[in-house]
Amino acid sequence: MPVTGRPKVVRTIGFLIASLPLRIFAFVLVLVTMVLGIATTMLWVGIPILIAATSLVRGFADLERRWAGAMLDAGVPAPRRRPHGPGLLQTWQARLVDPVTWHEVNYVLLAFPLGIVEFVAGIVSVAVPPFGIFVAPRIGAMHAALTASMLGPNRTQQLEARTRQLSDSRARGVDAVEAERRRIERDLHDGAQQRLVAVAMSLGRAQLKLDVNDPADAAAVRELIGAAHADAKLAVSELRDLARGIYPPVLQDRGLDAALSSLTARMPIPVDVEVTVEPRPPAPVETTTYFIVSETLTNITKHSGADRATVRVTRDDETVVVEIVDNGHGGASVRPGGGLAGLADRAATIDGVLTVVSPVGGPTVVRADLPVRW
Hints:
Elements: H1 9-39, H2 46-72, H3 88-97, H4 99-127, H5 129-134, H6 136-151, H7 155-212, H8 218-246, H9 249-254, H10 256-265, E1 271-276, H11 283-304, E2 309-315, E3 319-326, H12 339-348, E4 353-357, E5 364-371
Parallel strand pairs: 1-2
Antiparallel strand pairs: 2-3, 3-5, 4-5
Helix pairs in contact: 1-2, 1-4, 1-6, 2-3, 2-4, 2-6, 4-6, 7-8, 7-12, 10-11, 11-12
């Protein structure tokens, strides 16, 4: 798993110094229980001791993942373990043949001498600030890489997890496209199609009156033609809005900044927009960003009770980050079949992630992290 950048200097030095007591305790406890369990295995009492030893190892490994994540910014997920059946014997057998167990045992045993070296480096970092500024972060980064390689999932598990993620994204993408198709079909049927039917009926009635050629019906004919003209203009407007919701021309011509500014200008509440996405992201990312902002602002105006919102779109080398914040009453959540779930599905079509933070009373923050490469 990739390490999320060079860790912060102060937290790294704290990690180097504070880790040694834990490493000593883990080393002694695990070594004693492992040796005692192996020595007494033939007497059967060693089996529960070994199970306890492997449980201790697992606990220390989980603690190390969280500790490294908090102090070194190293996101290390737990690997998939071998399943076991009921009973102490089957649990013991499964853990003994599970490579994850031995990776964690090796890490706990290696972390003790490594912790001594890191402790010395931490003390030197405090005494010699240039060492702490320039060397300690590199030591922390190397430890984070070691933690990821020994305590994280192996290459096969990473590929399997990635395959499952892509399969889920594809399935959610198919669902999102199908939902979008149904929405367009519904909007056409309930909007523009009904308007055009009304236009046809009005023109047909006007044609009948013209065929009669009764001068007294001239006013009625003008009224019918006027109604048809009004319905035709509404149909054109609805078709334009529908097309703009699918892919607005300004998005293709001028990019996200202009498209989102045009979108927010039509909102009934004030919306502050900040867009910094140079270089311009790929078209699917722009389209997804526009859709998420558009739908979220629509939900805000309908349901949140907010009188102001903020849209911020930024990017780095890997990700476009979209944040929409409102000052409404909060309480929004991603529920199956809900609007926010649809936005999450839309983000998943390009391997993005949507998160919602909306405590009761507000504010609500909707954030989408969209990769620029997938």
